[in-house]
Amino acid sequence: MTPETENAFAAIRREYGAESLRRVEMMLQPGAGSARHPLQRGAKWILPGLSETPWHDPHGHPELAPVVEAFEAAHPAIKEEVTAAWAGRRELFSDYEHYLTRQQDWQALHLYRAGTLVEESAATVPTAYGVLDAFAVRTGKICPLLECHFSTLLPGAVISPHCDLWNFSINLHLAVDIPDGCSIAVAGEKRTWEEGKCLLFDYSFEHEARNEGDRPRTCLLVDLWHPGTSIPERRALTVLITEIRRLMGD
């Protein structure tokens, strides 16, 4: 760790106690990468002690349930707004740049990125923007290291099996517009989206998605803190990953 990271960790320990960052420290120990589920082998960091559950009940975590309920209740308006944006403001969507790949048949309209809300999206998709701000950003449930975006897979698009970088955030999908022939698999378990409902999964497990339908599939993806993480851990992880990215020039 850099001196800046060590100083930040020390300040967090003073505030929350000497053992408050024990799991983060364990994650950073040499050899820690071997202590994981086999289907998390492609993830870079695994915070120990979190549930080894690929799929989660979207309504099963008291911390996250208000976010899920708010997005599901707002689905009709969200679908109307993003459909209008896709039809009339296509230039607002861009090729999605995952850390592993960039795909032209995977289009994204961002609401939150680089640790802040994308203000330009407020005028285009105001309902989703407002729900995100009120229920995820202001409440500190969004993981500021990642993002929120409308994810549109064009017909024939395939997202190949992969693991994301870590397990201390969790991925929420609001099914906005779902044609027949679309599916997602996490840790080998295949599911489909139900329009207007949310899915919640740990994307440190290997996962893939495809659109075998005849029109675009759109979901709203929100990167939230894993409910098994503590406030001091979240603070430390934010400092740690931000510093790593700075050093890597990302």
Describe the structure.
Helices cover 31% and strands 26% of the residues. It is of the alpha+beta class and 250 residues long. The chain has two domains: 3-20 and 230-248, no CATH class; 55-225, B-lactam Antibiotic, Isopenicillin N Synthase, Chain (Jelly Rolls, Sandwich), CATH 2.60.120.330. The strands form two sheets. Strands 1, 2, 3, 4, 5, 7, 10 and 12 form an eight-stranded antiparallel beta sheet that branches. The chain has a four-stranded antiparallel beta sheet with strand order 6-11-8-9, with no helix packed on it. Helix 1 (3-16) runs antiparallel to helix 7 (231-248) and helix 3 (65-73) packs antiparallel against helix 6. The chain is globular. The relative contact order is 0.20.
Jot down its keywords.
12 strands, 2 domains, 4-stranded antiparallel beta sheet, alpha+beta, 250 residues
Summed up:
The chain is 31% helix and 26% strand. The protein is an alpha+beta fold. The strands form two sheets. Strands 1, 2, 3, 4, 5, 7, 10 and 12 form an eight-stranded antiparallel sheet that branches. It has a four-stranded antiparallel sheet with strand order 6-11-8-9, with no helix packed on it.
